[in-house]
Predict the 3D structure of the following.
Amino acid sequence: MSAITYAPDLVEEAVLLAERTLAAANARTFRRERNRVYDVAEPDQREADFRALHLKWFARLGLHQVIEQAVAARARLLDHVSGCRVSRALTGREEGADLIGPSPATARTGEGQPVLALRLRPASLLAPEPLATLLAHELTHVADMLDPAFKYERTLPASDDGPSADNILRDRYRVLWDVTIDGRLSQSGVADGRMREVRRREFAATFAMLGGEGPRLFDEWFDRVQPTHPALVAFAQAPNGNARTNMDDSGRCPLCRFPVAALDSRPERLSAAARAILRADFPAWRPEQGLCAQCLDLYEARQDEIVAPRAIG
Amino acid sequence: MPTVKNWQLGRNMDYPYDARYPSRQFAFVFNINRCIACQSCTMACKSTWTFSKGQEHMWWANVETKPYGGYPQWWDAKILAKLEEANPDGQVWGGKPADGRFGPYGTFEGQTIFEAAQRTLTSDSARVLGYLPTDEEWNSPNIYEDNPVGKRGVRNKLDETGEQLPVHNTWFFYLARICNHCSYPACLAACPRKAIYKRPEDGIVLLDQAECRGYRKCVEACPYKKSMYRGNTRTSEKCIACYPRVEGTDPETGGEPMETRCMAACIGQIRMQGLVQVAEDGSWAEDRYHPLYFLVHVAKVALPLYPQFGTQPNGYYIPPRWVPRAYLRQMFGPGVDRAIENYASPSRELLAVLQLFRRSNRIIYKYEIQEGPKIYEGSLHGRKVELYNDTVIAFGKTGREIFRTTIEEPIHVRSNAHANSI
């Protein structure tokens, strides 16, 4: 792999942010050098001078070190990429790692190599510890993508239920993959011990349909040593197939038939009056089947209308 | 540090430079009771001044939804928090409102951004207390202003305890903002290159692009966050108050001073901009029949935005009537109660002056009222109300009449010559 390349706007912004932490004499030196570049009249030359100056200070301030160390720690990963580019993310949500270019599968067979793309906020480069944690997590994603045993596919199976079902599957897959990654990083001592609780909450929110089985299944995924893409997809598609619950496994609300991320597993929240109205519409419905949050709200509202009709006029 | 007089705070305050005042000052009044956040002002400014490469994130004029919104995000909450941190429980007003032009809202007993800086910052940056907004805060104007969201940092999840909020009346209002062309600009105070200056003829604060070296101290210092850094030129930029229009040198003006693009574009007719006379001590010189002077110093319905910052901003707001007073007092100072009372039960003269908003794009220097007949009598808020169909006449710089209008809006009868004609 060739050297890591850094986007000029990321480098410049990181250096400008780091300038505040410099000793006064160093800050003056930096400003003296930078101010001189403003006097270069030819636009292309001035731009080139700015870039060179900021890159020099980027290296001098060691802002590249955490990235270089994190990438170097994944020496095997580097054999399968043609380069590594670090660009600027505007938001925390944009931060991450990905492979661009030829698919990971071709990289594995040596037919063509993708580029490792890292997106980071300039401010993140000034916080070494959180950055190291972030990079460890993100580079594990990439390592999984390149690992033949993981059997990664770029696209998830499309659902016949349309885009909302695709989104639900993607969200579940993302949460599950994150759980397995932080589980492995915890086992190797890289991730913070508190990560288990963070991921547990995220898992519980995403897979609320698992009910009492949720914690056990979370532990199973978090402690799994060698997860695979097909296993993650299978679980994301049918979480209940892996748990002993009475919930409908179709991923659709039994009442409105819309795809839902999670059925409400607490139909007992429905009042008796609302349940009676619901039964009038759906005689075959049983509380154990659950219902989506929207239907729950709907029947609660209808009950309210009957109990306390709103005066008009 | 030198001491200057701040009439809005009713006291002297520290400022890095000695006081120097323009002969006239660019100022404006926004009646935010009427703002509908149509963003016409925002786009008028954008399409005039900030449409180029590198200016994508710049909105010299913007309208944000309060209390949630802000551009950059949380700008006011952040600087207020910094001031509170610097002077815990000390950011309070005291004293009595003065009758004159100095201290009409009482005396601010807390610390301004200049004073707090001396206590809390290291010497290198001790001039102004501020902060540098992040990319994300700049890049998301109006984001989520009308959306429910969960706790910060929690993805794809609404706040689980939101349903436990106490019963409360929801409220919001739209806050239109541009650079306040402050009398004591924080951007100017912070610039290590002295690239920012205040024009002696109209008090407009400009940033010399040839002198700027992109330190971003002005971006950090401006408490209203109206100085912005441009990455491709590596200089900062800010609102220039459409100075060619204000000077009367823009081809469209025909030599007569004209209001800025954002003012002229306001379809809600919430805006009026002018040039007020400045006294030797930096307060407004008495100019009884100048509409802005009347609104700020006579009717006292228009108040400065966050006067406690200490920059003596020249943007004034008629506060929205329906918003909790504590919030408004924080934003506009202790003059809020009187302002709302006077606006809700307007005097005969105030009613007339409010008719001047946006009848013309020319800058009004003086008005005159010709009394008309009584057209209504009734009561409002328990008070007797009488409406007179007075005529208000606006005069320009040379004393020439610009327009005249009446309290009662004229009725236009559509001609029946063409079905859809006006």
Notes: The mean pLDDT of chain B is 92. The domain at 3-147+170-344 of chain B is CATH 3.30.70.20 (Alpha-Beta Plaits). DSSP finds twelve helices and 19 strands in chain B. The radius of gyration of chain B is 22 Å.
